[in-house]
Design brief:
mainly beta; disordered C terminus; six-stranded antiparallel sheet; 3 helices
Length: about 325
């Protein structure tokens, strides 16, 4: 990638295909290095609750711990944790997330604890505490690219050096992830649990008490289905053995990226893991958002077929992931 084509520079992201609603999540990794390049290990929900470990490549002796409630920016939420060279050394970073507390640990030592009670916001009458089912994300992104906002570039240590030693030697900036481990906790006390297949939001506030664990399906009935109408089907499909015949249906099946047949409504979830026991399933592609009747659904089914290209591992380990996340220079 040439410096005069910086608009095309992008990062890399891997995300779990299943959600965690409280639990212990750890990753063993080596970060990238150099100003403007940010390595991240985060939990992120569909309403933008977020729990972060972020690593600025220009500051290899610190890791930033941070959190957000529904994407609301509060610069007081971030705290630095001292650690030896994050690029040269393997370290294990862990988040322990319960309904009442949140802790950030490095190599088994707790460095920060956040109590939910300390996050009360009298203006909104809410706890500004991450509290909704989240996916795990591992990423490397060019925060220092010239196309980003000035504040973002400054936060990331300055503009990216596209002639850095790593780019000269390897052709790209990179981070290495040795393993990711997850233990899911039981749903919080008082949670509305009527099944074990999907999380749904039952209210627009998007807080802890509007999340339900149900048996709602997480697979669209057809390509006419949407996040608010999972069971939408093609006209005439209710007739036994009816063949798809309309031009609209054919066009829909042809034009949906990644479609391998369409019309699937078998009830088998493509998302692996259970919300109240050990959870598993990692995919390099983002997937799993779907809905059921009464709200927005997130697949958490234990069992069922993995989505195409997904590798699932059942058991106490969420997954063991060995990968190099690369910010490619094209």
């Amino acid at each position: 990638m040439s410096p005069n084509n910086e608009a095309n520079k992008v990062g890399s992201l891997m995300a779990s295909s299943a959600y965690v609603w409280y639990g212990k999540v750890s990753a063993t990794l080596k970060t990238s290095q150099g100003q403007g390049v940010v390595t991240a290990f985060i939990l992120l929900s569909d309403v933008k609750d977020e729990i972060d470990f972020e690593f600025i490549g220009a500051y290899l002796d610190d890791v930033q711990s941070n959190y957000y409630f529904q994407g609301i920016t509060n610069y007081d939420n971030e705290q630095n944790i001292s650690v030896s060279d994050t690029s040269a050394n393997w370290h294990t970073y862990e988040v322990d997330w319960t309904p009442d507390t949140l802790t950030w640990s490095v190599d088994g030592q707790v460095h920060r604890t956040l109590n939910k009670n300390s996050t009360w916001n009298a203006t909104s009458n809410q706890y500004h505490f991450p509290q909704t089912p989240s996916r795990i994300e591992l990423s490397l992104w060019p925060a220092g690219a010239s196309t980003n906002a000035e504040g973002t570039i400054e936060w990331s240590g300055g503009p990216i050096n596209w002639d850095s030693s790593d780019i000269q030697q390897y052709g790209y900036d990179f981070a290495m992830f040795k393993s990711v481990n997850v233990t899911c906790y039981s749903p919080p006390s008082g949670a509305n649990v009527t099944g074990n297949n999907s999380y749904i939001f039952t209210g627009e506030s998007g807080i802890n008490n509007t999340v339900s664990l149900t048996d709602d399906n997480t697979v669209l009935k057809s390509l006419l289905g949407t996040g608010t109408n999972m069971s939408a089907d093609y006209p005439g499909a209710a007739s036994s053995g009816a063949a798809a015949s309309s031009a609209a249906q054919a066009a829909a099946q042809t034009n949906v990226p990644g479609n391998v047949g369409g019309g699937g409504g078998s009830g088998t979830s493509g998302n692996i893991g259970t919300s109240n026991s050990q959870s598993s399933g990692v995919s390099s592609a983002a997937g799993s958002a779907s809905t059921g009747s009464g709200g927005f659904s997130q697949g958490t089914k234990s069992g069922g077929a993995p989505v195409q290209g997904e590798k699932a591992v059942q058991g106490s380990l969420f997954a063991v992931l060995v990968a190099v996340v690369a910010l490619l220079v094209m």
